[in-house]
Fold this protein.
Amino acid sequence: EMQAILNAKPNKKGQKAVFDWQTAYAYSHRLKAGFDYTVLGMPASDKEAVRVALVELPTLTAFAMVMVAYKKEYGMELTTALDDELDFTDYSWKEIVYKKPKK
């Protein structure tokens, strides 16, 4: 997960990060790692890691790219995974994502 975070950051001070398909795949892997968390040998979700990854996405376009990458990598819709992996009544991920600018 740390490597995925570092890969998504700009290389030099003042340099803007470019959100490309490689970055979208890195975010899909980050989210999957958050879903596949284990606590005391029991499967769980690292909700904070998932939340942080979603907060760091810059735009709705970037989220759409991550959705495509996630579907290609894992054969499941990202929105379904978010609904399934987070608490039954917790849809806060939608508030985080859908308030982002389009571009």
Notes: The first strand starts at residue 38 and ends at 39. Helices lie at 2-8, 21-35, 47-56, 60-74, 78-85, 92-98.
